[in-house]
């Protein structure tokens, strides 16, 4: 660390510059210290919920003005706004006059300024409104490494939150503080590797229609070779003892409790598996992979096959992932002159034609099925899909039959371009395309799970289960942003509100798990490693599991790394998602700093997620009273798969920035 006399030199130079430019400032009494204006730091590192932070001007590039008072120096920004500053070990003080800029006078702005030093809050302005006079702050930062200057929106959202760090300056003895990126978080793998002993994972209950082809690969971790057996399988089913794949058809409606058994040299596992033959599919949320967020319009048959291979080879299938789903862009693109994707969209009988990248759909689904996995496809009820490829409008009956003939098990049915042909804003208008397609799918001789993708229109959660099995509740996750929090939070908060509508056979769908190597629909390209921090990724998967969301990964299967697999493949976390009771977590508490979800589970235990929304670590707690519990509870940390002890009254822990504590509470009988 440089603690020499460069401070003297810096002081002299700065003074000279300030004298030349005629800017007045109060020099520190100590000749050794010099001032560094906040506006002189690299403000490209400061985030803002709207606009771009401005040096010595408001966010709208006007003079900085708070409560009628003008300031020559400072930074204009907008909540949420965060800047990390490396104090270089020699910075002594930070001071500023803060407030809402007068440019939003009369508007309902409400913000809070915070100064955080090495994860401890040094100062908090409390809520500030437009028109209030500036609040002055002058704090010692001596000995601290990193300072965070944060402007929070308070609970009313970010509208009009124009925030000024007026007159903001550092006093330093030597090295100038500098703006930095948030310190990197190590990708710590919390989940222990699966034990060598067999453990049967995935759903405990499974729905199938009478006489539909049954296909189920027993998800099971543990050392191979492994032998599989089953007791009490319904008539019509048979199990391949080597692969663990169950196939056949069951004629008779009704429920059977079979027992699945897996054995290897280390031991054996047995698990009850409830097979419900009736008219309800997706008794637990579907799990799998979708091509969209990594392959977009480049998706090919080869990519789909490779992704199925990886689903097995990576072990994902051993945790219950089973659907391998193509998204948009497998059809012919309307009016395209590109020979690979252009040409006639349908054959002379009106049947859909895959583009040149999908030469033989049936061969592709056979390939996927041979591994015990399932195949999914996508189309839109309008004349064109969202990416401009052939849609189903007017061909619904034939398309449903074609998908069944091709061997698909899952259909994602979008909305794009449907409005041009039909549309309307009444409930029946929103329901119609899904009613039509669902009725056609029911006529097929195989089970096809229907995923509605219409972004929540007409309160889809209220009626989605009448016409399908899961429904997107929001817009596309990949495009969402919410201040300092990555987009999955706002999607999650919105999806969480509809908890009472989720049930076996009908699930709220907050969109895909975008971690690992993922792309953007706008930038194209081959994707990049997620920018989510390790803790954000734990939060993402925890929130989706608590919400009983479909667990569909949409990053690159070919570039899965150990950390992404650790997030996707924790059997105890997946058990929360797949719990047979099929309840979505309720929101216990939500403020701008914390989010607490609680999910009731079939065995009487509860899963609790304590989400820290703040940029500093903080203690979070849940009391038995809040949960309606009495008596001692065994508390198990699900990411670490470790009992934390038998606790009475409450569970409290320190949760890192944007992190989560996901626990399961068992009555201690
Ligand atoms: C919509 C959907 C996405 C994806 C694209 C394909 O935007 O919401 O998930 O399917 O269409 O074009």
Task: Describe it.
Strand 37 and strand 38 (606-612) form a beta hairpin. By secondary structure, this protein is of the alpha+beta class. It starts with 5 loop residues before the first helix and ends with a strand. The strands form 11 sheets. The chain has an 8-stranded parallel sheet with strand order 32-29-28-27-26-25-24-35. It is globular and about 85 Å long. The protein has 4 domains: 31-180, NPCBM/NEW2 domain (Jelly Rolls), CATH 2.60.120; 199-277, Immunoglobulin-like (Sandwich), CATH 2.60.40.10; 287-579, Aldolase class I (TIM Barrel); 587-667, Immunoglobulin-like. Residues 292, 327-328, 378, 385-387, 414, 453, 476 line the site of alpha-D-galactopyranose (GLA).
Radius of gyration: 29 Å
Number of beta strands: 43
CATH class of the largest domain: Alpha Beta
- Major β-sheet strand ordering: 32-29-28-27-26-25-24-35
Shape: globular
**What's the architecture of the largest domain, going by CATH?**
Alpha-Beta Barrel
